[in-house]
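Duplicate of #3305? Posting structure anyway:
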């Protein structure tokens, strides 16, 4: 009986060890494959920047994390690297609207409204990247977010068949990079499974939107869950 228990404990230990090593391997695989396409001077034909959403304040202002991402997009637009900007985030109700706050911030900082497209259903990094391809028809793009998050976004885009480049939105050392590091490892594993095995549809899709058109048409492309437009 004792030998059986020892074998079960040993087997459980081996399984746990294999699981941990697999997680580390996937995490590093995603990072290594994405690093080649981050902060590059030559970004091919990509001239659309995708800003991934993050928390907004109760005062309807971008959180510091989100402001960094938006400032990065503004810089690329001003330098002529990006011709259009897509803001992708959570707008699941009349009470919470990341993309509205993101667009307002860009307009206040000189980005013309017609060059800003709103993706109201970017509920996750995976969904934002899938919708960039399926809704906006992008074959190439630049994505900007903090470095801890950027590798995953670039990896997802590349696996989906989008020529994806990343630009880091970090401004110096940030404690949240360390705070989110282990959570990000789990997110990389989840999205690795999504793009290679599960391949789920986004929560919402919809009709195609031409990125060559006027971004203001996306202002009214809400509601997405059956409530009335605020």
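Output from current build:
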């Amino acid at each position: 009986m004792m030998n059986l228990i020892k074998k079960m404990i040993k087997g459980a230990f081996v399984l746990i060890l294999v699981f941990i090593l697999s997680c580390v391997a996937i995490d590093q695989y995603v990072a290594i494959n994405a690093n080649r396409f981050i902060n590059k001077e030559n970004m091919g034909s990509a001239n659309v920047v995708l800003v991934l959403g993050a928390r907004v304040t109760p005062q309807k202002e971008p959180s510091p994390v989100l402001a960094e991402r938006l400032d990065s997009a503004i810089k690329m637009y001003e330098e002529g690297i990006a011709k259009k900007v897509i803001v992708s985030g959570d707008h699941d109700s009349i009470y919470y609207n990341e993309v509205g706050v993101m667009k307002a911030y860009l307009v206040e900082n000189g980005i013309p409204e017609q060059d800003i497209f709103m993706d109201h259903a970017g509920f996750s990094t995976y969904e934002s990247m899938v919708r960039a391809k399926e809704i906006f028809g992008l074959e190439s793009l630049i994505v900007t977010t903090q470095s801890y998050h950027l590798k995953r976004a670039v990896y997802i885009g590349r696996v989906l068949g989008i020529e994806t480049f990343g630009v880091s939105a970090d401004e110096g050392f940030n404690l949240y990079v360390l705070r989110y590091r282990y959570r990000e490892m789990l997110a990389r594993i989840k999205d690795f499974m999504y793009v290679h095995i599960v391949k789920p549809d986004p929560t919402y899709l919809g009709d195609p939107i031409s990125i060559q058109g006027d971004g203001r048409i996306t202002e009214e492309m809400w509601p997405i869950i059956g409530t009335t437009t605020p």
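Confirmed duplicate; merging threads. DSSP finds seven helices and five strands in the chain. Residues 2-35 form the longest helix (34 residues).
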